[in-house]
Amino acid sequence: MAVDAVAEAYRALSGLDEPNPMQRQVWECVSGGPWGTGLLLMAPTGTGKTEAVALPALAQGGHRLIMVYPSRSLVDDQVRRFERMLAGRSAQAPGRAYTLVVDTGAVSHRYTWRDGERVDATGNPRRHLYQGDVIITTLDKFLYRFFAFGERAKSYIFPLRIHYGARKTLICFDEAHAYDDVAFTNFSRLVRALYGKGMDVVLMTATMPPEFAAEFAYLDTIDYVQDPARREELAAFARRLNPRCGYPHKRLRYLPVPVDAGSGGGPSPAVEAMARLAAERMAPGRRVIVAMERVTDAVAVHRRLAGHEGCPLLLYHGRLTASKRAEVYGRLLEIEQQGGGYALVTTSAIEVGCDLNAHALITQLCDPERLIQRAGRCNRRHDMPDAEVIVVGDRLLEWESGLAADEAADYVAELRRQDGQPLDTLALAACIRKHPNADYRVEVMFDMLYEYVYEARLENKGLHDHGLVVTRSWEPTLTLCTGYDEHGRPLHALDVPMSQCVAYGGEPLTPGVRAFKETFDWREQRPHREPLGRWDCAYATDIVVELQGYPFDEEVGYVELPKVFGGSYASGYRRVLVRDEGGDRKQVWYIAPLRPATGAAGEEGQAEGEEDAGAGDAD
Fold it and tell me: Domain tally for the chain?
């Protein structure tokens, strides 16, 4: 396609006047050459990586595009972007229907456009079988489909559509840096398997460490992050296209305020300082993001800012219900589109991939990778001459940091060096210390499932029949709720890791808690609940915890998680959680995660019977 035709496609499908240099280069890579596409795309946040991959696939019509994201919140955000693209594409092809499929654990739906307008889908809109022009999904759900799991039985139509459809499939993994441990093992194995079968594959990232990028050395690389000349090329393009985008920098301030609370309890000095800094910057038309490491601290800051009349105040974290998170994020986008102001208090739940553009980011000290991601939400469009990033905290929280003591010291020294200067993300990226921690058990499981589904190795049938795909962590989740509606559905449902509901150090159990095993009765089409057994496998059932009399507030969510289990211990390869119900000992086990080798002998994990320490208050 000629250069002017590429620009015309961008104007028609995305509303952009013309593609930037990175987008032109990706267009050539995706659309040209007989050997297909295997690409690692590294580019800064806000430079249009999604459009770079999606538009050539849609404009030329030769691909079915599957967009794979690390979380459901990102899926909700991207649906809005693809609606415009598909409406524009359908307007260019009168009579031809274009379809978007959203396929996650919570949603399975098909949307259709014809002649530039949204139309009702024919048939059951929940039944899609990957029959669409664009499929938006998560890594967890894509693995589920890749290994031919249906809702109740095997479903080989998904592997067939992925590998052998009438059109070639282009599979794009966004935020490819966002996977660790089990998830990265699955992710890297999946990419290699797809590439080995001749599939077109693109990985997109802004902050992938070199150690992780080395795992994908077999892919071509387009790098607009580490290459200064290419970064300047993007910046010059933005300035030429929009003179208002002539402010690419944001000033960094580092305030080493203590993150630990005093002996009298209450919020820490860091929490108080961040609330004060936010209040000083809340004003009409100004957008402020306050990013905390703990949910409890985020709620504390939110409460201190309540009643401030400068701009709307919003709270977003991982312990809000899914419907509330969608409502808050939709409100944020609405305010941004209107050019208004807001103050958002959040946690790491919103830092990856969300299209926000704030004047000020006030963040608790966090790992360099997360700081770079958070900073990408500040002055995202390079149109704010006074943008600032303020980092608050005298130390990293151990349970949230992967840096050793000397590495953390070097990182803090770099922040001190940049204090008062324009933020240098390349220097911060040099402080990232992450290494792939492959889990051999996940590798074996992936290979066995692959051999059964794609090579008919019947000796692996038993594993597939169990229906277990460990996608992100060996630790399962349990579902919190405050009761049930008239249809038996849980109220205010929220999935949380099981270990976060364990009492440690003599903490009391939360009163009014009822724990159940839940299965779905397909004949009666309703859930069936029964009490926990004395020895239950967490993979064989869903565990639901009902909080009777819990004062649930929809606006702040589950601030403090309930203590459901009185303790936990290691037993061989198992992690066992214990609950005492009236003298009756209930135990639930799951496979313990691998830990990096430690000590001279390289021991893994913990000794038999040793109890865990607390897991912190993330999300």
Answer: 3
